[in-house]
Design goal:
The complex is a heterodimer.
Chain A (H helix, E strand, L loop, with lengths): L1 H32 L3 H12 L2 H18 L1 H10 L1 H20 L6 H31 L39 H25 L5 H29 L5 H5 L5 H12 L9 H23 L2 E3 L9 E2 L7 H28 L12
Antiparallel strand pairs in A: 1-2
Chain B lengths: L1 H42 L2 H34 L2 H35 L1 H4 L1 H30 L4 E3 L5 E3 L11 H30 L3 H37 L1 H8 L11 E8 L4 E8 L2 H7 L21 H30 L7 H9 L2 H18 L2 E3 L3 E2 L10 H32 L7
Antiparallel strand pairs in B: 1-2, 3-4, 5-6
Helix pairs in contact in B: 1-2, 1-5, 1-6, 1-13, 2-3, 2-13, 3-5, 5-6, 6-7, 6-11, 6-12, 7-8, 7-10, 8-10, 8-12, 10-12
The chains are: A mainly alpha, B mainly alpha.
Chain lengths: ~350, ~450
């Protein structure tokens, strides 16, 4: 039952990063590569029409995590207190940036909300990557200092950074050189994904230029991936054991690799949807590989006093999990129906649609 | 620790207050939009369709604000109230996750279709998407109130040795006797807010002598919806809720009604008075004898326990705030019924559109339904104190053990600044939309 919920929540999270991932990515592309007013408008629209129905997946993931693994939810949310609240503020800035831009015609107004949308998208992608980096690295559970626990076993509080800035410190902070590498991977991945989305959904004049950008971003992604693999093992020495014990889990890294290799052929791809599928593979593979490397641990401990958090020691009751499985299955079917109806009705290029309400 | 709880409570109170401004309008407004759209399909008079689309714009602005201010609330359970989340997540996580999955999805998916899809879908499907948005927003209210009802009157649980609440009976969460009255009361109150907003915009157009045709339509619709809903909010749903509080939270009931001392021969109802916490009595009291006993139990001389019957640590920790919240809500509710009854009378006599003083009153009363709704929410929440889960888990036991008060203060200040900006932008946008007014588009 715990495994079912672990998989269900992972799926919802992955869907969230695929869907909201493209509008985060659109924001990053917008920030760096949109030149003309027309480009800016089209890119904003490609994100603005969809962000709120994408963001519901985050709310759903949060709710499901709360229900299925309350101890994990409580531990992680209070432990990463500051970055999470900052993430909330960024989500707000991004949303109002998207919604407000078109409300008034004068240039300064548009510029403010363009920057608000672009910068908060960039920072959110970075923060989400850093969060993933923290989860695979592990934290100082129980806030252990000099061999004594400052809180109950599963609670902790991470500062934004530690003076050594190293993931190998006994009390690592949220930002260190390892989590920054993962953060950059997230930024580049989502930028590629967002660029593919813009190409797919719009007839923007920068579309052909974006393909060059994607090619270059993909090279940097490959380099970053190799670096991260080299240090990953150093930061969390058990990282790759799971793949040794259960070789079928290697499917997840292969998905990532398929996306990465495929994107080198971006300029030759016949259909825009193929490129979008490849960057989707990157996201699916990246997140699932990280989770699979930890399973059944969901938050490793960097001290030896406290046990890591696993899906077993943080879950709700068996009855609660099984009754929720029943309604969640109905819910999933409904969500898929909504998604199909919505995406079919809003299929195709969106340039001609009215936007701004 | 004291500071910590104070800042945590203040932060939650502040963020939920700001958040609740938006869904209380959207829940009621979605019903009225469906009504306008339905009338258009029935009689094919274009102005009803224009009205539906115009209010959908207002709805959309409110919805966006509601989403961006609602996500922090879900996060705050974990960030600021980690211990509470850990202990009760197995139960209230059910209703919160269902809210996300069943209602929020419905609302967001179909809102975009309602706004952009009229040309694609045809009128009947367009009405259907509007109806689904309405369904989603009311279902949201249902799940959120199921969560709150469990905190007010916990059911279907078992407590383990480690203090964790474990779900025993899923269906009990929805057959909770607290839930249905609270839900109906809350939804009707949101219809009151939306009718006042609709009527107020109508009054503005009529008084300004522009868009008069729409103004008259909005006034008529707002007054009729407003009269019916403000009566139903008071009776039977308000009464039903008060009886529930008397039954399940007698200490809160005594504080709400301002009964310091138990009267053996029946309790009076307090109309006016200020709680004096030093002398434990009401100053400047105006009260009618025996009415409270009758309203609560239908017996004139039934005894109702006063605050003297409870231990200090069982009583709500801010009695004056609770007392005033409740009395402001009831007082405003009474004013709403009178105002709308008068307006409905003039509407019937065909004199409403020229009754200038009344139109001014309707136009400017708009903040008050919001205040009534919020004080109603405060009454429920302050009444639940000093508990998070009534009778079982104290508020002091629910905060995050690892977060210090400095962090909470910092994030509180951040939210205050950010929400002030949001509030300002919201007013500018709504003002702009109202000023532009409904437009007739030909397709």
């Amino acid at each position: 039952m715990e495994t079912f919920w672990f998989i269900a929540i992972s799926i919802v999270l992955v869907i969230f990063f695929i869907l909201d991932g493209y509008d985060f990515g659109a924001g990053i592309i917008h920030l760096f590569f949109a030149k003309t007013e027309k480009d800016k408008e089209v890119i904003t629209k490609s994100a603005g029409l969809f962000w709120d129905s994408n963001e519901v997946w985050l709310v759903a993931a949060g709710g499901m995590l709360f229900m299925a693994f309350p101890t994990f939810y409580a531990s992680v949310f209070s432990g990463f207190y500051l970055p999470l609240i900052i993430v909330l503020w960024l989500i707000i800035f991004r949303a109002i940036g998207l919604e407000l831009r078109g409300q008034f015609k004068f240039q300064m107004w548009k510029d403010i909300w363009d920057k608000s949308f672009g910068l908060s998208s960039l920072l959110l992608a970075l923060f989400f990557g850093i969060a993933l980096g923290n989860i695979v690295r592990g934290v100082n559970l129980g806030g252990v200092e000099n061999g004594e626990s400052a809180y109950e076993g599963h609670y902790f509080f991470l500062p934004l950074w530690d003076s050594s800035f190293s993931p190998l410190s006994k009390t690592p902070g949220i930002i260190d050189w390892f989590t920054i590498i993962i953060g950059l991977i997230a930024v580049v991945t989502l930028a590629i994904h967002g660029a593919n989305w813009i190409i797919l959904k719009t007839n923007s004049s920068i579309n052909s230029y974006l393909k060059n950008i994607i090619f270059k971003l993909n090279i940097s992604l490959a380099v970053l991936t190799i670096i991260s693999l080299a240090v990953w093992n150093m930061v969390n020495p058990n990282s790759f054991n799971n793949f040794g014990h259960k070789p079928y889990l290697l499917i997840f890294p292969c998905i990532y690799l398929a996306g990465l290799i495929g994107l080198f052929f971006i300029k030759k791809l016949k259909k825009d949807i193929h490129a979008f599928t490849l960057s989707t593979l990157l996201i699916v593979g990246g997140i699932t590989s990280s989770l699979a490397s930890l399973f059944p641990v969901i938050l490793p401990s960097v001290n030896t006093i406290h046990e890591p958090l696993t899906i077993y020691n943080t879950s709700a009751s068996e009855y609660g999990l099984s009754v929720a499985m029943n309604w969640a299955l109905i819910g999933f079917i409904l969500l898929i129906i909504y998604a199909i109806v919505q995406k079919r009705l809003m299929a195709g290029k969106i340039d001609h649609m009215d936007y701004g309400h | 620790m004291e500071d910590m709880i104070f800042y945590d409570r203040l932060q939650f109170a502040f963020t939920i207050t700001f958040h609740y401004i938006f869904p209380q309008l959207t829940m009621g407004l979605s019903l009225m939009i469906v009504y306008f759209k339905y009338r258009y399909l029935r009689n094919k008079i274009e102005k009803y369709n224009d009205a539906a689309k115009f209010f959908m714009k207002i709805f959309a602005i409110n919805f966006t604000m509601g989403v961006v201010t609602g996500i922090p609330l879900e996060f705050q359970f974990g960030t600021n109230w980690a211990k509470f989340s850990e202990l009760t997540g197995g139960i209230i996580g059910q209703t919160l996750a269902m809210e996300g999955m069943f209602s929020f999805f419905l609302e967001s998916s179909f809102l975009a279709l309602f706004i952009f899809g009229e040309k694609l879908m045809g009128q009947k499907l367009h009405l259907l998407t509007g109806f689904l948005v309405f369904l989603g927003s009311w279902a949201s209210g249902w799940f959120i109130l199921a969560t709150n009802a469990w905190m007010q009157h916990p059911v279907g649980y078992e407590i383990l040795d480690n203090g964790k609440f474990v779900l025993q009976n899923f269906s009990a969460l929805f057959s909770n006797p607290w839930l249905l009255p609270a839900f109906l009361h809350n939804q009707l109150a949101s219809v009151v807010t939306s009718s006042f907003v609709v009527a107020s915009i109508g009054a503005f157009y009529v008084l300004r002598n522009k868009q008069t045709e729409y103004g008259q339509l909005f006034l008529k619709t707002g007054v009729i919806f407003g009269l019916v809903s403000s009566i139903l909010v008071a009776f039977p749903t308000g009464d039903w809720n008060a009886k529930n509080v008397a039954k399940y939270q007698p200490a809160a009931f005594a504080a709400m009604e301002g009964i310091f001392e138990t009267e053996e021969a029946g309790a009076e109802i307090v109309l006016v008075g200020q709680p004096n916490m030093v002398e434990k009595k009401l100053d400047n009291k105006i009260a009618v004898p025996n009415i409270l006993s009758f309203l609560t139990h239908q017996e004139w001389d039934r005894q109702i326990p006063g605050m003297d019957q409870f231990k200090q640590e069982e009583l709500p920790d801010n009695i004056p705030a609770l007392y005033y919240s409740y009395h402001i809500m009831v007082g405003l509710g009474t004013i709403f019924i009178c105002l709308m009854a008068l307006a409905a009378f003039l509407l019937w006599r065909k004199k409403l559109y020229v009754a200038k003083p009344l139109l001014w009153a309707i136009m400017f009363i708009v903040p008050f339904p919001y205040i009534a709704n919020l004080t109603g929410w405060y009454t429920a929440e302050l009444g639940r104190q000093p508990y998070l889960v009534y009778g079982l888990l104290r508020t002091t036991e629910g905060v995050s053990p690892s977060v210090s008060s400095g962090n909470t203060l910092f994030t509180l200040l951040g939210f205050v600044a950010l929400y002030m900006l949001l509030g300002l932008l919201f007013l500018v946008l709504v003002g702009k939309t109202i000023n532009e007014g409904p437009k007739h588009q030909t397709h």
